[in-house]
Amino acid sequence: MDVQIKISVIVPVYNVMAYLTRCVDSIRKQTYRNLEILLVDDGSTDNSGALCEKFALEDKRIRVFHKENGGSSSARNLGIEKATGDFIGFVDSDDYIEPEMYERLLAMLLEENLLVAQCSRDEIDEQGNRMPDVCTPPEVQVLVESEDFLRELLMHRGDCSFCTKLIEASLLKQHHFPEGELNEDFRLLVELLPEIPAIGILPEQEYHVFYRYGSNTRTRDREEFPRVFTDIVNNADRVEALVKEQYPGLTVEAERFALIQRLDYMLHIPISQMKRDNTFYMQVCGYLKSHRKEIKTNPYLTKKNRQYLLLLAAAPALVRKVHAGIRGFR
Question: Is 263 within 8 Å of 308 (Cβ atoms)?
């Protein structure tokens, strides 16, 4: 392997004192040594920024940038701008990685002449327990063409996270993560796929996601409605447009994806927000009503999917109230 190749690892940092040392140490211990580690302090109000500076004093490969709070996408975009590596990877500051992750990813990129390589991942909860796999790892190393990769995403079987991937820097220098949105990885990856002939996937679960409450969809407050649920609907519309233009063979899968994303939205929106003056909610209701035929005929929907979608298209608030009552009774 050419050890002259540099990998830039970008870590957005925001108020993560409890987890930052574990994260950064896991990157510093990589068996592939030619790294630069970009810690982007996104306006932390705890001592995370100072801890980043301490790490930089200990390891010359670490560069620290401080900015006003703008969200993970904003921090990642700054990291991409400052990165000098040939390839770029991302690690979220509460997650951690295995020592050989980047060595294995880079080897696959070079061996197969790829733009993107991906490892597998698992999720660890706050008590240290391993959770069920969100994405099933392949049994062996595989190459997946971009259309097949998109099909897996549309079927909710693929991994859209940029944290499990190593990407040729030139690709990311020409694109940016959407700022002010959630589900940003999906949106950018779908935008990039037409430029990526194939993605290599490793079976090893080298990336460990730390699953904790209080971020995105992980909330205990039933009245809280995270922004991610509106963003997944918007992204479903974007991917439908992309499929129509560039991947017409995936039309039925994209249709299924759009319906499932709206089902997710409808099952999570607080009943108190299901009102006629909620424009976005009313648009989702209108979409379901106008797509009753597709709900009945799409071969990729389960029987339960169909039942819920048809009921929600007919009487959304009533269905949710009944559903909540059944859950409460249980």
Answer: yes
